[in-house]
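Exercise 7. Predict the joint structure of the components listed below.
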Amino acid sequence: MNEEELMRKAIALSIENVANGGGPFGAVIAKDGHIIATGVNRVTANHDPTAHAEVSAIRAACEKLDTFDLSGCEIYTSCEPCPMCLGAIYWARLDKMYFANNKDDAKQIDFDDSFIYDELALPLSERKLPAEILLRDEALKAFQLWQEKTDKIGY
Ligand SMILES: [Zn+2]
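Solution:
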């Protein structure tokens, strides 16, 4: 399948998902033009705020390929990723992302991710989410153990 065919699949998933009780978002992960996995938004259906189409597709692709590294794969998502999904795309090491609708289109229908992008640009003390550093010295123990571990799998 070429790029447009793969995106049309992501868009078709987003359209079907509206009738199936999910948000209007779909994603496809492909390798060498073949679909590895798909995902749709199941936030309200599954009571899972992280069940965005892209995260769902990444989880399914990793399970199918038995890996945590999706190098060599590309993601086609019906809408520009939110900060969580964009972060997941980086963590999964996908080679490239394609999106159709953009975040301004999403904002028009009240899916406004821009406040998170705005928050990220602010210092911790100026964000809407209160945050406090607590017990750093005690938590560093796990980092020391990790650093000393000789058989760890880096990622
Ligand atoms: Zn997302």
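Discussion. The beta strands are 26-31, 34-40, 74-79, 96-101.
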